Amino acid sequence: MSDHILTPLTALGKTTSTTDIIGGITLCENPNFAIASLAVRQGRGQDLQTLLTPVLDGELPGPGRAVLSESATAIWTGNGQWFLMAPLSEHPDYAAEIKDLVKDTASVTEQTDGWVIFDLTGDDLVPMLERLCNLNSKALAAGHATRCLIEHLGCLIICRESGRNFTILGPRSSASSLHHTLVTAAHSVA
Amino acid sequence: MIINHPLLGPRDAQEFVYHGDASLIDRPDANAETALDDFHDYLYLRDNPAGSHKELWFHEQGLRSWLVVTRDTTTQEISLVELASDYAKRRGWDR
Amino acid sequence: MSQRNRLEGGLIERRRPLSFSFDGKSYTGYAGDTLASALLANDVRLMGRSFKYHRPRGVFSAGSEEPNALVELRSGARREPNSRATVTELYDGLKAESQNKFPSLRFDVLAINDALSSFLSAGFYYKTFMWPSAFWEKVYEPAIRRAAGLGRLSGEEDTDTYDKGFLHCDLLIIGAGPSGLAAALTAGRAGADVILADEDFLMGGRLLAEKDLLSVRQGSDWTADVIGELSNLPNVRLMTRTTVFGQYDHGIFGAVERVLDHVLEPQPHKPRQVLWRIHAKRALLTAGATERPIAFENNDRPGIMLAGAMRAYANRWAVTASKDVVIFTNNDDGHRTARDLSANGVNIAALVDCRTNAPTWKEFEVFSGGEIINSRGRLGLRSVKVRLQDGSVKEIACGALGLAGGWNPNVHLTCHKRGRPVWNKAISAFIPAPDGDPLLRVAGAAAGIFSTRGALKSGAEKAIDALEDLDISAHMPDLPEAEDAPINAAPFWYVKGGKGRAWLDLQNDVTVKDIKLAHQEGFKSVEHVKRYTTLGMATDQGKTANIGALAVLADLDGKAIPDVGTTIFRPPYTPVSIGAFAGRSRGKEFRPYRLTPSHKWAEEQGAIFVEAGNWLRAQWFPIEGETHWRQSVDREVLAVRKSGGVCDVTTLGKIDVQGADAAEFLNHIYSNGFAKLPVGKTRYGLMLREDGLAMDDGTAARLAEDHFVVTTTTANAVSVFRHMEFCRQCLWPGLDVQLISTTEAWAQFAVAGPNARKLLQKIVDPAYDISNEAFPYMACGEVTICGGLRARLFRISFSGELAYEIAVPTRYGDALIRRLMEAGREFDAIPYGTEALGVLRIEKGHAAGNELNGQSTAAMLGMGRMVSQKKDSIGRVLAGRPHLIREDDYRLVGLTPVSADSTILAGAHLMNIGEIASAANDQGWVTSTAYSPHIGSSIGLAFLKKGDQRHGDVIRIVNPLDDGDIEATVTGPHFIDPEGERLRV
After folding, report:
1. Which chain C residues are closer than 8 Å to B64 by Cβ?
2. Contacts of A154 in chain B (CB under 8 A)
3. What's the distance, CA C417 to chain centroid?
4. What is the pLDDT of residue A14?
5. Residue span of the structural domain in which C90 resides
6. CA C723 to CA C761: how far, in whole Å?
7. Does B63 contact A79 at a Cβ distance shorter than 8 Å?
8. What ipTM is given for this predicted complex?
9. I need a surface site. Which of A3, C626, C772, C781 has the fewest CB within 10 A?
10. Separation in Å, CA of C31 to nearest CA in chain A
């Protein structure tokens, strides 16, 4: 850990995370995620998998899927591409950590600050998700993860529990717009 | 429109950007004697078929894959969707 | 309260009376009423004035096809013109006003138009308002707007909220009448994912409007049972008040759900309407049919309406338009209306059937072979004139007339994807083509199957059929016994021989005469007739009008109706409010915006912001005493050149390029070489398009052998990334290279000015030597700052001064700008915005968006020699086209006005002195201009023919739009430090 003197802000421009409770829906900005993107080098898929197996407790996820393990979340983000996510407080330089691990089997890029992350929980989030993105929301099950458009913003949605618990990643610079959209949709269905 | 993405399944065309004729994949040899004419034809001469058309779509709001989509321009029927990288490799563009 | 036209029975809740007002007068209705049924119950027949002639009009239908009973609903900002009273669900406190009347509905001065009707015939606008053109804005348009028109907009911002959403299903069933319900039951029991949508607030469709029994039960009871079962199925979504208004490619449907249109005021945050985009694997159209009228002279009076609507009002709403009714029919269905009304206690004064073999009944008199030829009653029907089979004429007193001209299947949605309906002789109507869209099947009355039994059966069958496509096996449910009467109809569209006007299109005031006139004037194609006469336009799109007009045209041409053809139905099926399409995207949230990491801090400084794409960027930072933007910008520019300034440049696109072949990849996409760029160095790169013109410029920094960071301009960040992915995936799929955007991940600040290094040395941790020797111009590297925060440092300059760009993880951007400004205080460093950034780059002669506008070659930009001929890069071959490398082509130059107080305007053209300012003599154009505090005058960048050979020449800058014509001296494009010494100190 470094002991520099700069104070970070969350994507919503606050020093602490913002929580909105709207009816039975809880929307919480989660600034404590480190993200590293992983893109496999040509012909190195098997080597990458071997190096990552201990971290993921298994295989890298396939299209539309995420692996939600104890130590890390791995999300398929494209052909030969994944996001790895872990608690930022424990992994302040996550991309470097992962690069050390995967060596030249994959390109690793720091993505922690590219995103705003919202945790969305509630008893029935399907009506809200139907207002937000063009996915068959009721069919999303734990371990599903996919890119989608939310109010013109390219987002990533991870289902942790069907209908009840989702993580939404959106472009960080548009955090306020995305937050507004999520809050509006929550009010609309709450 | 719906494009049946080879990896993700059916996705709304709103997520894609259209880029026209897939013949753009067949880029001429820049070192050929006839390169100037070849590139001219490559860039400016396109077929505009009423019927089956191979065309490029970019999944910009998704996983950023380029696709080769075979679409009937008269009925909108999409008969085939492939990853452009697979298509290009099949045509020998991976050297 | 008296509801003198209220009958017994019906599906209204008599225990829930609702009060409402129409034209300021209070009335009472019941829950379950529509505005139309409640007004009829209160004996209000007059509901509006017609579009062109201001004729008194009343309700004509009982559904969304209504042409006449259009009202302004609600008041103030919520006023909604052209609301159809027939589908407006009654609520307590509803306020409605009639439209298109002055001063009142009963006395309308513009009814004079009716007397002037011979001047207002088909093509009136086209013939009358030809010239003078100046009259259009001043006379014709305002006058027409006032005289001819429907309701008035409120002119205020809509205070309600709207939302939108996305739904997915196996089977979308459009319309919840007998066939739709049978289909939903079949598909729901099979476990399919079903959406059943209906525009009405009650499901059941025609079952709610009929007295016929299903087995031994009321249709409405059977409906309630089915709805009950469906609502308990988790795989079935029932959507009332939902109009599926359009069908689009590949099973996408548009629908609008009127969630809270039926309340006085929606609760805060709750949307009034939701626009749905429905993805249906299969769809079934069970939208029923629309009855058609029979045209005769003066057939438009209040009280004259569709017979099936009368039956619906009597059976569902327990209302009659009058106690004395006449029916005019060409088929058995008219008899059914007469019998139902009679059973409900309404006096059927006569049933006039144009067929000579009409059935007879003991309850009322039937005139076989008769025709209604005229009507009387100024503000409401008083009597009709009947020509009997023997030719004699009889006048019959009545307050309402029901017209039963047969039924048209509601085929609209089958036409949205170019489906053309076909003529069915048995029912004299168009039905969907049998070989239509496999994604959209049609059942029930929409398919021309009019009996209840047929509708139930075909609904279930088509659902089974559609689900078979999806490998879902479904079974025929037990369907109740139902009416299965044959269609006995004689085609009969309009009564011939009258001298007066017989209306075909009530909403647009189009008469039989208008169609004849249009035909006589050469408008024979149905599409032309529509546009010339306005037939079938406006809110009802001619749902009750078009077929009659086709019949008139067919007679005129001696053709059959199917040979005349139909106009094409397009979405929306019924009008959809703009608010629903806008949804949440309103005001500030019209589109998402992007904030820079220093946004919060810049706001605190009082910065003025500008939209750059979706970004909001600080444009300048006014300080106390500055009253004009130029004062702020000049100060910022001078401060940077004198000492130092800081600017947020996060918005520049940043693309991470990694892989064993990363350098080779950059060699392909940049016109200049990158393979030999050492680690720890940055290089300027010019990207060409394949046609050889410049696409974008930026820098690539090599952080490791296999790792570059590429920057793009803010404007092209998205398109350059797309292009790079195209090159990677489509052109060179064999290269080992991976791309990802990191624009958002790093907060990046330019620190520029002679004191930039001193300032940064206070921030960068001492372990990192950033002296000129250790970290020279174009160096780059990873450092730590402020006691250990990792950062990236690039020694690059856009301003022409000693400058760096420093990047930290975005969350530290706010803290860093504060720290930088604090550290810069001793140097009087200032923050500068995009305006100063622009001035600095113009002074330095850097090309930007104005120069990289898709028309410039590398040679024009003075970078011709950068295009490496040794490698295959995008655009290299075609950049070599002879015309693009002509020596006498345009070249980038600088311009300073001969007279220092003249202003150079961007976009102005360059002319030689002594030549006429004409396109033929054009020498080039000004691309960018600014006031340069450094030069002390306006300066400009321009593309000038042979510009590189004309430094020192004087040239004219001509702006004919503003009579501008000044002289300027041509210089090199670099107004400061052309040798680049300041960059390297």
Report:
1. 725
2. 60-62
3. 18
4. 96
5. 13-125
6. 38
7. yes
8. 0.99
9. A3
10. 25
